[in-house]
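Bench notes, bay 3.
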Amino acid sequence: MGGISVRIGRENTHESFSSTSVVAAEYGHDAGSSARLAVLGPTRMDYPTTISAVRAVAKYVSSILDRG
């Protein structure tokens, strides 16, 4: 699956997210379909922990989808 994307404040494409941060990761199964999950939070969040958590959940969900 794809990597992690992080957008902070004005890096977000939507003006309504200009004071937030979005940490997102792609998940899915090997057959090709995928989606993204994300954490939306303040611009002063704990990025290393949030990135690790998003990566771990995406990997876990992908592994469950691959079993099914």
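Next record in the batch:
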Amino acid sequence: MSTVQQFIALSRAIDALNIRLGKWLSWLVLVVVLISATNATVRKIFDTSSNAWLELQWIIFSIIFLLCSPWTLISNEHIRIDIVNSAFSQRARNIIDVVGHSIFLLPLTIIMIITSYPFFIRSFEINEQSMNAGGLPQWPAKALVLIGFFLLFLQAISELIKRVAVMRGLIPDPYRGQSSHQAIEADAERLIAEIKKD
């Protein structure tokens, strides 16, 4: 296997990891809704509440936001100005993606990994607890920052590999000819197929 093929295989492995993780963690949206509704109901009916349940909602939201962001990137659903982006040729868009991932996304993820590691370690070592009465430990939430940006770093590497491979004609463009509307429909069809499997 050539070096180029090894890089493409690495990209596929990263994609598979982040897609599977994103699909599994997306079910936490339902969990956080149920926790939120239960907490609000208990507070209204029994005039009691728990900071632990409130903080658990924040942690689950953080899991969804941070750990599903690589899945958003691979699905090509990240924020961009579509009107401007669609005015460029496919080659220009590929170059913009390579430059954007290399100069902005990768350095950001590296900085966040480097700075969030001691942030998490200090919290873990002292077993940092919430300042709210009955709250949860803080270090798991801080670990999510480190894990989330590490996964995003891996996905940025994968996206760079794919963009360069597409520009060299080694693989077909996975996003070519797919509008946002088509992408949403394809996602809906995939989700329905996953539900039917379960």
